[in-house]
Amino acid sequence: MSGSYYVPATSKWPALGSLALGVMMIGAGMVLVHDRGGIVMMIGLAGVLAVMALWFRDVVVESRKGLYDAQMDRSFRWGMGWFIFSEVMFFAAFFGALFYIRFFAVPWLAGEGTKGATALLWPEFTAHWPLISPPDASIAGPTEVFSPWQLPLVNTLILISSSITLTVAHEALKEGQRKICRNWLAGTVLLGLCFIAIQGVEYYEAYTHYGITLEAGIYGATFFILTGFHGLHVIVGTIILIVMLARIMRRHFTPEEHFGFEAASWYWHFVDVVWVGLFLTVYVF
Q1: How far apart are the C-alpha atoms of 61 and 80, rounded to whole Å?
Q2: pLDDT the model gives residue 81
Q3: Can you tell me the distance from the alpha carbon of 50 to that of 47, in angstroms, rounded to the nearest whole number?
Q4: How far is CA 50 from the centre of its chain?
Q5: Fewest CB atoms within 10 A around its CB: which of 66, 83, 138, 232?
Q6: pLDDT at residue 4, as a whole number
Q7: Where are the bilayer-spanning segments (predicted)?
Q8: Domains with residue ranges and CATH for the chain
């Protein structure tokens, strides 16, 4: 549509997606607090997946009809850029909480700093991190923590490798080498699935052998909040990459017009960078 600006039709998917996500989070909260609500959570999850599928369908149909022009392309790029910025702020809040706890709250409880008077609460407490022994004896901390050089390092290498394979796939698409793009993108999807599986193993080990649970004091809470939300982003990113792989196999993109693929790449690289930060702050230091 040369010389025109396409305004997409009013969409019900943002509202329905928010509703489904809200139901899923309510169910998750019920599971965590009351140990029930699994059905509510699964209904919400099914709703989220359904909205994603139908929303992807509508965008693909609009794109294949040639409704998007250069102005829409700029709008999409700005929109994706602001979305990733919002994700940066999302994780910055959790990283900020971790740093505040490690470098301010825990030392204060041990009598350090200007607020050291809080040490009167637990005078025998000694500041240390990871917080294996919480100051309140009624809270059982983890028995031990993960070595960063085992499963966490494997997952780090997997995600770094996935960024490389995705970059190769993107460059191949820009050169019109669709078969090479398909193969390297399939490799990226496989690496994403491996990361998810290994993190599942790590969570199983955390609960059964390391005593790292949501009830294991502030260490357990921050561990699962940071790695859990990142894992959720990896799952979403892997789903998006699977959609991109299906579109590549159906010859939907051209070397000149493939912003859907490019946006998926931006998101995946962002998720990889976040993991490097998590690996360093949660596991190594």
Answers
A1: 19
A2: 94
A3: 5
A4: 19
A5: 138
A6: 62
A7: 12-33, 39-57, 78-101, 149-169, 181-198, 218-245, 266-284
A8: 10-67 (1.10.287.70), 72-284 (1.20.120.80)
Task: State how far the Cα of 215 lies from the Cα of 213, in Å rounded to an integer.
Answer: 5
Interatomic CA distance for residues 168 and 172, integer angstroms: 6
**Nearest C-alpha neighbor of 160 from the set 121, 211, 195:** 195
Phi, psi of 150 (to 5 degrees): -115, -115
The pLDDT mean for the chain works out to 91
CA 107 – CA 114 distance, rounded (Å): 10
Tokens describing residue 18: 């928010």
The pLDDT score that the predictor gives to residue 138 is 84
**Nearest Cα to Cα of residue 213 among 75, 55, 222:** 222
**Residue-level pLDDT at 6:** 63
Q: What is the mean pLDDT of residues 26-37?
A: 89
Average pLDDT rounded to a whole number, residues 175-185? 95
Residue from 275, 276, 233, 252 nearest 185 by CA:
252
